[in-house]
Amino acid sequence: MSVKTQEELLIAVGRNRDRDAFAALFSHFAPRLKSFLMRQGTAPEGVEELVQEAMLMVWRRAETFDPSQASASTWIFTIARNKRIDALRRTRRPELDPEDPALVPSAPAAADDVVFETQRDAVVKQALKTLPPEQADLLRLAYFEDKSHGTIAAESGIPIGTVKSRIRLALAKLRQSLASELM
């Protein structure tokens, strides 16, 4: 048997599924791919698996090799490089864990809690209606629209000190009204 070039071996694998040709390619390239991948920063515990995946891809895709486009070594090392990139992408975007507490929906609220919250909300809404309109508006802006006192002052044209004092007055009235309602 004559000595075949790497390209001839690869073509034999692609055309005839020549196991001997593949064994020769494997014994030549596997250690070189391992060194290449380790130099590229692949962790030692993952390099063997990547070499196996790359060589398996060589076996599966050998019929697509075109010696006019690249040499056998370039083609094989490109496959190994791409396998390494795929592995990096998998580790950077791990699979979602369905047991992750952040992904588990919250338990529905107990019926008595829902009733209590509904009643409390109605009491608060009624207490807000008893406030003067300018105080109720300031509370709405500050607590429901989450705007800062400075933003409220700028938007309404009221001095910031006045905004703060009206909010303080509104909260005191609200507290007083709610205390009498909830007693």
UniProtKB/TrEMBL annotation:
<dbReference type="GO" id="GO:0016987">
    <property type="term" value="F:sigma factor activity"/>
</dbReference>
<dbReference type="InterPro" id="IPR007627">
    <property type="entry name" value="RNA_pol_sigma70_r2"/>
</dbReference>
<dbReference type="InterPro" id="IPR013325">
    <property type="entry name" value="RNA_pol_sigma_r2"/>
</dbReference>
<protein>
    <recommendedName>
        <fullName>RNA polymerase sigma factor</fullName>
    </recommendedName>
</protein>
<dbReference type="Pfam" id="PF04542">
    <property type="entry name" value="Sigma70_r2"/>
</dbReference>
<dbReference type="GO" id="GO:0006352">
    <property type="term" value="P:DNA-templated transcription initiation"/>
</dbReference>
<dbReference type="InterPro" id="IPR039425">
    <property type="entry name" value="RNA_pol_sigma-70-like"/>
</dbReference>
<feature type="domain" description="RNA polymerase sigma factor 70 region 4 type 2">
    <location>
        <begin position="124"/>
        <end position="174"/>
    </location>
</feature>
<dbReference type="InterPro" id="IPR013249">
    <property type="entry name" value="RNA_pol_sigma70_r4_t2"/>
</dbReference>
<dbReference type="GO" id="GO:0003677">
    <property type="term" value="F:DNA binding"/>
</dbReference>
<dbReference type="InterPro" id="IPR013324">
    <property type="entry name" value="RNA_pol_sigma_r3/r4-like"/>
</dbReference>
<dbReference type="Pfam" id="PF08281">
    <property type="entry name" value="Sigma70_r4_2"/>
</dbReference>
<dbReference type="InterPro" id="IPR014284">
    <property type="entry name" value="RNA_pol_sigma-70_dom"/>
</dbReference>
<dbReference type="InterPro" id="IPR000838">
    <property type="entry name" value="RNA_pol_sigma70_ECF_CS"/>
</dbReference>
<keyword id="KW-0804">Transcription</keyword>
<dbReference type="InterPro" id="IPR036388">
    <property type="entry name" value="WH-like_DNA-bd_sf"/>
</dbReference>
<keyword id="KW-0238">DNA-binding</keyword>
<keyword id="KW-0731">Sigma factor</keyword>
<comment type="similarity">
    <text>Belongs to the sigma-70 factor family. ECF subfamily.</text>
</comment>
<keyword id="KW-0805">Transcription regulation</keyword>
<feature type="domain" description="RNA polymerase sigma-70 region 2">
    <location>
        <begin position="25"/>
        <end position="93"/>
    </location>
</feature>
